Amino acid sequence: MEIETKIPILSEREAFIKAAYAEKKGRDTDSQSIFTCYVNIDCPTPNLPVLTASMLDELSKNHFEAYSWASKWDKSIISIAPDSKLGCIFLRDDDSKGKIFVPVSTTKIVDTVEMLKTMPEGELAFIGINDQPTTIDAFLISYFHMVNELIWDIALKQQGSGKIEIRSYIKALEEVMARGFSIGSISEEEIVKAKKQKPDTSTRIYGSKVNPYVPQIMGVIIKS
Asked: Which pTM was predicted?
């Protein structure tokens, strides 16, 4: 008697997520990052241009730390801290200073469209953020992952193939700081469509699923 083996069939969305997540893009997947970027906010709707400038400044001042952090999926923690101003800071995971930053976890849905409108328009690329309703901390997780995805994507394109080298990362970072990017909300269907139309288009998947309000398909990079 033959035993029928049923193989689960992935939905189109599940197959897309699996394929996109498998694209490591020259990242180091064999070890964990020893650095964390703390994104310190001061109100329910923080100033996005200030936060963005602060993160890019931190990256530019800490090339080795930034490169190591980005190559291992750029871990960020949205936080609040007493007597700490709005902005980003890089710390080693064993640095005691990290204890002052309290992770933010909210459930209130915020208007991210209005926040994105405060960003100046740049020329390098358009970052499309999934327009799924989300909280401020979940939105910032998606946002910073996508900005760093842009830097990494440019470094990968400049280098051509293989593991990204630090000099390629620095050059890409400098280009993003000099020329900027545009950003807005788009639907998940539009993200998937952009990837299908141009397979080398960079998308980002939220793999950890720690924050339930972060869209699993966070966004897409559409080059100018």
From this structure: 0.91
